């Protein structure tokens, strides 16, 4: 599948079927995400995956009600990065860690789409509850929780701004 086609099919999905992703498929997706560039190849991104019923219920309880409803039947990927490594010594400090994790997550989303899975990135979450359940160390910053599963129905495509609205060339 060509990149333009892949980008066009990737949507934020808010309704999932009961078909659950397997551990081996998660491993394939994370392996692809690992190929993303990072500051000085520090590779600070980390993932914690909820596949069991207990883990999924725990993650759901760390989400607001509307995200619980939007991600029902999905598995969850909690993404974080190790603090203090990317951009070390620069004025931006840990911003590079967040930037690198964003790149890594973009690869993850596209690989999931290529494999027929859909995703929803959720920023509102009880990060302390997630850290406790998964044993995430204090030197990691938890960023989004990503729901992953098979879509139920067709998500709406929301229009994008025209490139001339966001682009300046001199």
Structural notes for this entry:
- This protein is globular.
- 31% of the residues are buried.
- The chain contains seven helices and four strands.
- Helix 2 (23-33) packs across helix 5.
- The protein starts with a helix and ends with a helix.
- It has one domain: NADH Oxidase, CATH 3.40.109.
- It has helices spanning 3-9, 23-33, 53-60, 65-71, 95-114, 127-134, 163-166, and strands spanning 45-50, 75-82, 118-122, 140-149.
- With 170 residues, the chain is α+β, with helices and mostly antiparallel strands.
- A four-stranded antiparallel sheet has the order 1-2-4-3, sandwiched between helices.
- Helices cover 38% and strands 17% of the residues.
**CATH topology, what is it called?**
NADH Oxidase
How many DSSP H or I helices? Answer: 7
**N-to-C series of helices and strands:** HHEHHEHEHEH
Q: How many whole angstroms does the radius of gyration measure?
A: 17 Å
What is the mean predicted local confidence, pLDDT?
94
Record the strand order, biggest sheet: 1-2-4-3
Number of domains: 1
Global structural class: alpha+beta
Q: What name goes with the CATH superfamily?
A: NADH Oxidase
Please give the number of β-strands: 4
Low-confidence stretches: none
CATH architecture: 3-Layer(aba) Sandwich
Shape: globular
Helix content: 25-40%
Strand content: 15-25%
CATH level 1 class label: Alpha Beta
Largest sheet: 4 strands, antiparallel
Quote the distance from N terminus to C terminus. Answer: 34 Å
């Amino acid at each position: 599948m060509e990149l333009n086609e892949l980008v066009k099919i990737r949507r934020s999905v808010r309704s999932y079927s009961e078909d659950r992703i397997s551990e081996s498929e998660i491993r394939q997706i994370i392996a692809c995400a690992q190929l993303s560039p990072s500051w000085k190849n520090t590779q600070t991104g980390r993932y914690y995956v909820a596949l069991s019923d207990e883990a999924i219920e725990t993650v759901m309880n760390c989400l607001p009600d509307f995200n619980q409803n939007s991600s029902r039947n999905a598995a969850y990927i909690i993404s974080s990065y190790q603090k203090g490594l990317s951009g070390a010594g620069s004025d931006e400090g840990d911003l590079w860690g967040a930037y690198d994790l964003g790149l890594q997550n973009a690869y993850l989303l596209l690989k999931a789409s290529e494999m027929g899975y859909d995703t929803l990135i959720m920023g509102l979450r009880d990060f302390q509850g997630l850290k406790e359940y998964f044993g995430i160390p204090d030197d990691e910053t938890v960023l989004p929780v990503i729901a992953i599963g098979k879509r139920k129905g067709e998500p709406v495509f929301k229009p994008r701004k025209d490139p001339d609205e966001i682009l300046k060339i001199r």
